Amino acid sequence: xxxxxxxxxxxxxxxxxxxxxxxxxxxxxxxxxxWLRKEFEIDAGxxxxxxxxxxxxxxxxxxxxxxxxxxGSLKGTGVLKALMEDRKRKREL
Length: 93
What we know:
Helix content is 40%, strand content 15%. The protein is of the alpha+beta class. The protein has one domain. β1 and β2 form a beta hairpin. The protein starts with a helix and ends with a helix.
């Protein structure tokens, strides 16, 4: 791995030295440790995406910080135009 690749990888990865162990309930529920809830701004009623990635279960919180990070991500893709055309078509029905 070159120095440049290493630096890019370090910039894109957010790592933490803290780890924890959780226990699944009979219903498959878990308690996310307090330090993670604070770090990711997870409050009561927060939602999360859950998916499998290889042999991992990934929980991705949908928090105001995450929503803010999406701003502008679809700019220039034509999504707004398609949405407006779809709304116009529905109004004409």
